[in-house]
Amino acid sequence: MSVRTANLYTALVDDAGLFPPTSLHMEEALARHRRDQERGSQVLTHRFLCPASRLDGLRRESFVPQRIGLIIDVPDIPPFEDLPVDIVEMRLPDDMSVGALARRLAGRLPPDVRLFVEVPARRVTGDVPDGVGLKVRCGGLSADAFPPVEHLAAFIRSCVERGIPFKATAGLHHAVRHFDPSLGVDRHGFLNLVLATCEAVEQRDPAVALRTTDVGRIVQFALAVPTDTAERARRLLVSYGSCNTSAPVADLRALGLIEEDV
Hints:
Blueprint: H1 3-9, E1 13-15, H2 26-39, E2 44-51, H3 55-59, E3 67-72, E4 85-91, H4 98-105, E5 114-118, E6 132-137, H5 149-162, E7 166-169, E8 178-180, E9 185-187, H6 190-201, H7 206-211, H8 215-223, H9 227-236, E10 237-242, H10 246-254
Parallel strand pairs: 1-2, 1-10, 2-3, 3-4, 4-5, 5-6, 6-7, 7-10
Antiparallel strand pairs: 8-9
């Protein structure tokens, strides 16, 4: 990875192989994750995202990932002290603020575990305590799961202006925004998301970067990001989950933005 681009793409992609549309079995997902760890791609976080409902299945396997992101899909947070969990992600209940949820969980998470609360892109919340991050869903299995550019841009701008770290999930299958004829919707690109965060850091409208579909233009845009902007942007955009861990590396390599092998 070149010095110019390293700060933008290092530790960008979490392993969401257990989730749709890939939906690997636990044994398959862990085998792929182990191969990724052995290859050591700098683009990957080497964090394995696991639903809380499948922790017992993870424990039955002989291989344990170096890092685990625990996705809460059950009514309560299960014990996980025996596993290398460094992030807990959970959806915000409809009748609760981020601050209220964080206060409810106070003392229940170890100090070295970060909480990320999933909120709709359209909901820019003002009640986010220090140390808590947000999570935004960028797509899904139906067209209505993809937030409009305006909503996603407002979310990014709010997080940047207030210094709130955030993660992204779902729908970011390729680097550059493109039309998906199977769903009849424009898919957000993960590179668009990264560059939109850079734009917000520099106090410009992130919607412009989110809308860009011109590959040549977005590559020039990426190569022109100053190092300090890249560092500030990536302190805020922590990572995003991808069910395919080879595609992001392949896309960045094909665009000439990294040099490492897939």
